Amino acid sequence: MAASSSYAEDVDVEVITVTGIRGGLERAMDLKRESDGIVDAISAEDIGKFPDTNLAESLQRITGVSIDRSGGEGSRVTVRGFGAANNLITLNGRQLPNTTGDRTFDFANVASESVTGVKVYKTSDASITSGGIGATIDLSTLKPLDHPGTKATLGGKAIDDKSTQNGSVTPELSGLFSQTFADDTIGIAISGSYQERESGMQQFLADQGYRASDASNGGWGGVPAGAEGGTNRPTSGIYSNPQQPRYVFEERQRERINGQLTFQYRPVDNFTATVDYTTFRNKVEEQHTDASVWFNYAGDRSESVWSDGPNAVPLIYSEIYDINSPADLADTSLTVGAWGNEQITDSIGLNLKWELSDDLTLELDHHSSVAEMKATDPRHGTRNNIQLPSYTRTRTGLDLTGDLPGIATGDIENFNPQTMRLSGSWFANDQYTSEIDQTQVKGKYFLNEDTNIDFGVSLNNVNNHYRHTQVQRPDWGGVGEAGDFADVNWTEDTILDKFDASAGNFAGTATQADYDLFNRIFYADFDEIVNAAEFADPIANVDGLYGDCKAAAGAAAGPNGEGQFCASTNWNEGTNRFTEEETTAAYFQVNYLGDLGDMPFSVHFGLRYEQTDVFSQASAPGYSRVEWTEDTSTSVTGVTGIETLSQSADYDVFLPNLNFNLNVTDDVVMRAATSKTISRASYNDLLGGTSINTGGSLSGYSGNSGNPGLEPLESINYDFSTEWYYAEGSYASVGYFRKDVSNWIRTGTKESNIFNLSNPLSGDKFNAAVAALGPNASNLQIRNYIFENYADDPNVQPNFDAAGELDGGTIVGDPATDDAVVFNLNVPVNGDQEHTIDGFEFNVQHLFGESGFGGIANYTMVNSDLKYDNSSLNDTEALVGLSDTANLVLFYDNYGLQARVAYNWRDAFLNERRVNGDLTAPIYTDEYYQIDFNVSYDIPQVEGLTVFVEGINITEEYVKEFGRTNQLVYKLTQTGARYGVGVRYTF
């Protein structure tokens, strides 16, 4: 009996075996023409001929697909404006675990050589696992019985990454072998890849953000009104002040191993059994050094210069301090760190496919998969930070008028290892584990030649376990003496010449010559710095948890000799969060073929039902006190124990879909589809319990709380497309899509007196200091007043230097005289409004006869009424990742020579909605383009041998992130170009 087409069948997706650029495009066009819906795909052969490090780099060539990059490499994908969290990634139709805490998938973990095909489902199908509003992206791997005989390929590549300052050329190796036996009834395939990569990054970073406030704010976090606040000081609207700008330099070393083993057995023609094992391993080591300044919102700020409103930007922000003694000097900090993590994914699967008769086929598929992320070095943890301040700064400035924000200090020559001392430090250790057990039973039954039914049930169980510890010394006010790190083997270097962009230089300010552009930085071995830090800290002082290591002999230590400059694996004393999500599903879909006059058509109607149960358990530390140890910030400290909370919730959904395809003429195909799809909340949002940020300030205290009762986003989708196949290998298409989305997840805020702490920034002593000094007194002046007038108070602990001069100290919150700390907790909640996202997709593919030349051009235009309100000081509902995209590819394929140049462009888009008191802000990624190339040549003397050269980001574009206006730069990242030369041999 003839089979009608369906998404569930392999014949209906664009998985193409490509032997050349032109041939691959022609086959892709034919399969697109014959498909039942809007499904795009690429085969491994096509991917192998792109200059792509991973699959994300190749997927961005597809209409409507754009990517986010990390370290200059494709990491996550956005489809039709929906970010990575709203797209579902599967492997052979199976949901993959991850270690990110959300539902995104990092394509940097997967080598393209390990995958034979990628399919992007843009319209819905009842048989496909739910979870992708933007798209469902399925990665396919090799099945040996689909390729009878012996197949093998070997490849090698040398990579030169221009972003690293210390690295060298690194290797990539890949191989695949497939063999069938016993008259092609038994097959085995093995594939693997190994990659080393050394890369680096140069970055301007304002990670603390900009404190935004109404123009009426002339106090802390703002500037005085009038000329004292600078030229063109805003009088209305919002204005923003920087907090801690820094120049960051990182070096990374990555080792990636991918592999798969597949065994198939087909004892009879109508039954096939498949067992497969897949592994991804990704190990990354990082070394971090940054130089930064911290704005105190004090001193003379009259040389600041402001842009016009309504969102005023400090074109130049300046603080000039009144220096009467060394105690008045501010700190310029060097921050160092070294850490690593290893991500491991293992999956084993079983598939049984049985064609019981000509009319009925059944399929059972099960897989058990686990993903884990842990530290490569338990001593260093998964991230750490040691701060070395030099109290030598007489002024501070930030100039945002250049392409690179310019940071300035006064007396920069005094910033050196001889003046550095030890400040606070922390060693964080994260461990993620995600386990998935998924069972699917599918069937297809043919009623007649024109009608068949797809049906099935599935059970999917997902467990996520996140554990976190942090060994923190809250000595942010500084300990030890200047020069404690002078004997470390330092290497001095410059900063500004490492960036292609030019920095602002404070031109036009009255004292321009006194602004020393921050242009010196110091590097040293991290373990040598740790050794010096152990002896620089006279007293062991941690927030309740010491590290696993032992302190060096003679150094400050815990009660049992524990160290404080290493990470801990004492998971029971840290954050411990667990979620379990179990989804039961059933579906059916009717597929019908017919004729409308002389125009053939197909229609597909399906319905999927899903029931989901969520269980969450969270444990986190409690705290006993707040210490004011630094002018502008406090520390929540004194761990009292662990508190545990369990919660559960459930929901169910019906997901219908209808697809219609009409062959208007032999050359024109029209398609229409409507469906309902969902996208589930991230696992981090579902976690119960509350965690607080241990740093506070005059702007308040904050924390986060999960919500296991979150419901998924729901979208009603409409798709229309027309395709015109006007010549051999050439076509043009235009499509329109609309998504009406409800249940948007936004961040709500609730106030909490959790832990019943006292706030040293609000109480009798603080108020007395303000009354005596005036409302414009700086934090330093207020602290000194309290130290001098309340020295007998046990909660006031001043420090004195060798000369007996006041040198900072600690002020502890006093329950008797201070107000309670109020935490503003961010809680994810479902919104009650519906928003529409719609857009057009345009695509043209043209081959210039038999010349070998051709090209592809596509453009995706996305619109939405869901845009961030930049004029609001509060978080607003907005879609992260929404942007227009375009691609232009030119190629030549003839006489064994293949050459391709690809241009990719993405418009500016919102990448983060940051919610944190007066640091709440939208953060956008600026528009970005990248040019890549690939040239290969088939050696005629050796059949199957190809040599190639490739380049990625050859114009060395950088990525810029900004806030409410384009000049408010949060991040500018430069990663450089990457080149490769290699060889492939296929036999």
Q: How would you characterize the overall build of this protein?
A:
It is a single chain. The protein is 6% helix and 53% strand. It is mostly beta strands and 987 residues long. It has a 30-stranded antiparallel β-sheet that branches. Helix 6 packs across helix 7. The chain is globular, with a radius of gyration of 30 Å.
Main sheet: strands, sense, barrel? 30 strands, antiparallel
**Over the alpha carbons, how many angstroms does the gyration radius reach?**
30 Å
Number of strands: 53
The class by helix and strand makeup works out as mainly beta
Task: Report the sheet-strand fraction.
Answer: over 45%
Descriptors for this entry?
single chain, 987 residues, mainly beta, 30-stranded antiparallel beta sheet, disordered N terminus
What layout of secondary structure does this protein have?
Layout: H1 21-34, E1 39-43, H2 44-48, H3 55-59, E2 65-70, E3 73-79, E4 88-91, E5 94-95, E6 117-121, E7 136-140, E8 150-161, E9 170-181, E10 186-205, E11 210-214, E12 238-242, E13 246-268, E14 271-293, E15 305-306, E16 311-312, E17 314-320, E18 330-355, E19 360-375, E20 383-393, E21 395-399, E22 406-409, E23 425-446, E24 451-473, E25 491-493, E26 516-517, E27 521-523, H4 526-536, E28 575-596, E29 599-630, E30 633-663, E31 668-679, H5 683-686, E32 690-692, E33 695-696, E34 701-705, E35 713-727, E36 730-742, E37 745-752, E38 758-763, H6 764-773, H7 779-789, E39 796-800, E40 806-812, E41 818-820, E42 823-830, E43 835-847, E44 853-864, E45 885-894, E46 897-906, E47 909-914, E48 921-925, E49 928-938, E50 945-952, E51 959-962, E52 969-974, E53 978-986
Helix pairs in contact: 6-7
